[in-house]
Amino acid sequence: MLDTRPRLQDTDFPPLKRGRLETLQVNLGYLCNLSCTHCHVNAGPRRTELMDREGVDTLLRFIERQGIQNLDLTGGAPEMNPHFRYLVTEARKLGVAVTDRCNLTILLEPEYEDLADFLASQAVTVTASLPCYLESNVAEQRGKGVYQSSIKALQRLNRLGYGLDPRLPLHLVYNPNGAFLPPPQQQLQADYKRELRERFGIQFNELLTITNMPISRFGSMLLSKGLFDDYMALLKSNFSALNLQTVMCRSLISVDWQGYVYDCDFNQMLGMPLTAPAPSETGQSPDLVATDKALSSARRGRKIHLADLLQTDLSEWPIATGEHCYGCTAGQGSSCGGALS
To answer: Of all helices (H) and strands (E), which one includes residue 124?
Structure first.
């Protein structure tokens, strides 16, 4: 697979700093029952990387000590991690809002038939990938048969109250099937709601549009077809400074399956660790050994483990940026929560 990383490192993207940490986004592993062309983590059925129980317990300690409000679980198929249900249950006991980034088809797989009931019992928000309301577009990105399975899964979620009961939010995710920006989110949401309701009786809360990042499988496709430069020019020409205030990395950190921390899951896939603030900016407390260890690692360009950040205030830490960051700020903006403006 062709690698876009060397072409993303040098950037003129504006500098960013963190705000208050609200969301812990966790990649529980790369194992997945699907292999989608747009997947920026290269997940699939043959991947073996999975967070272990010790890593999950570290997550829970961090959540409790830092007062995290939102736990955002992703993968792969996060539900295929053997500790998924334990993590969800314990996080909910702490009063944390939990989001499961679900590919829908996992709800129909053998050994996962009761997964939808579990999610409903824990009042987990389901954010589900459905690249289009048309079967042909979904098949192009995710393979034959995925569309039908996704529709069945959505109908099952609706029967449990998802998309209908305010306690059970159901959001869908759209991403383009080519080298172009998503259309306006509200306009496309209206189309999705109309088509899914009229064709299948399906209801959901919000549609989230996400721009494809020029990394991993999608980035490799751009390089192989000679589209990389044109796509980057598209992102840059549509840059909106207004989106800088609400990009997800200002209030979120991303944790990989081994427990290392990044500014976002795109940086995670590019191997770009947290960037340490200069000594004059930290107001370091020498008694906080964990903070010192994290800063020391970051200043050496090393990855920082979540266990070393249990007592660390990440506010005002600089955010590591690259050319791919233009993907989050182009047009209406893009984040794991959909459009920014």
So the answer is: none
